[in-house]
Amino acid sequence: MDNYYKNKTVLITGATGSIGSSLIKFLLKKNCKILRAFSNDENGLYELSELINEKKDISFQYKMKKNKIRFILGDVRDYKRCLEATSKIDIVIHAAALKHVPLCEYNPLEAKKTNIIGTQNLIKASLKNKVKKFLFISTDKVVDPISIMGKTKFAAEKKILNINTKYIKNKTIFSCIRFGNIIGSRGSVLPKFKRQIIENKNISLTSKKMNRYFLTIDNAVKNICGSVALMKGSEIFVINDLPIFNIMDLANVLVKYYKKKLKYSKKVIITGVRSGERMTEELFIKNKHKNFFQYKDLIIINDKINPTIVNKYYNLEKIKIYKETLKTKIASQKYILNYLLKNNLI
């Protein structure tokens, strides 16, 4: 993969989010011909440009030219801007989305505009501009979705997976990747708990029974970029072997850790399950799919191909038919503490 992105033009949507900005920083080291960071967050794009370009004594335009990056201010809801952003692009990684379940529940039409219509705009623009590869960043919440966020992302994912069948002669190939919660990302539960502790407030938790898949941002970025290199069209890539944390256990680990560090003395309070939330998420349901394959850390689901030709299809010797189930054991508090320490999250 180290040389895969060399001299390629890449567009990242949602470039100022946790995943998007990490993808930008990673791909800046891969000798891309041009890297486009696309976002509707003006201040976020400016801050991203400041992080990437350390020298302050040269112009913004020269910084972009030197680093082979372009900061594209715009919205995926705007088809014309999507058309401009995808012009002369080889690879689109579509990370832009409305992702917070409570906000999407309260603003369903806005979730539809961004998650469904925005994705459709990018698909249409990518087809017109003959983009070579389009990877959609999906979520575990699309599996039998009950929330507005999950339902809109599922609808977008369905469009992605069906597009290669609909446009058989088209040269653009479309796939998606699913994973759980990025631990420590902006707006996620870990920074929320840490902020409540630092402010010496009670930790608020919706339910003691809440469980979630977690992964680090580095793991997500590595597998997103690896999936682009592997994809042949219509795959669902699933990051395998992710730990499952009980959120109450995570809160208790933080209470114990910061009790010593900060003399924290508050408690965990239960606020009640919110609309659109469920106790446990899944990354896929096995009996809904025909073809499972595995390559390194990725499970590859592709119901469009015959499993007997998988080696020819992917041209990879190490790929194998996936027979195991995803990890279902809840991590211990000891594991959670070591995970947080190992990844410099506390």
Task: Describe this entry's structure for a reader.
The chain has helices at 18-27, 42-52, 60-67, 79-85, 101-106, 108-128, 148-166, 189-198, 217-230, 247-261, 310-314, 333-342; strands at residues 9-13, 34-39, 69-73, 91-94, 133-137, 173-178, 181-182, 203-205, 211-215, 236-239, 244-246, 268-270, 292-295, 298-301, 320-321. With 346 residues, it is an alpha/beta fold. The chain has one domain (9-182, 215-242, 285-325): Rossmann fold. Helix 6 packs parallel to helix 7 (148-166), helix 8 runs parallel beside helix 10 (247-261) and helix 10 packs across helix 12 (333-342). It is globular and about 60 Å long.
Biggest sheet, open or closed, and with what strands and sense? 10 strands, mixed
Give the CATH level 1 class: Alpha Beta
Count of folded domains:
1
What is the percentage of strand-forming residues? 15-25%
Q: End-to-end span in angstroms?
A: 31 Å
Q: Fill in the CATH topology.
A: Rossmann fold
What's this entry about, in short?
It is built from twelve helices and 15 strands. The chain is of the alpha/beta class and 346 residues long. Helix 8 packs parallel to helix 10.
List keywords for this structure.
alpha/beta; 12 helices; ten-stranded mixed beta sheet; Rossmann fold; three-stranded mixed beta sheet; globular; 15 strands
Give the topology, please:
Elements: E1 9-13, H1 18-27, E2 34-39, H2 42-52, H3 60-67, E3 69-73, H4 79-85, E4 91-94, H5 101-106, H6 108-128, E5 133-137, H7 148-166, E6 173-178, E7 181-182, H8 189-198, E8 203-205, E9 211-215, H9 217-230, E10 236-239, E11 244-246, H10 247-261, E12 268-270, E13 292-295, E14 298-301, H11 310-314, E15 320-321, H12 333-342
Parallel strand pairs: 1-2, 1-4, 2-3, 4-5, 5-6, 6-10, 7-9, 8-12
Antiparallel strand pairs: 9-11, 10-14, 13-14, 13-15
Helix pairs in contact: 1-9, 4-6, 6-7, 8-10, 10-12
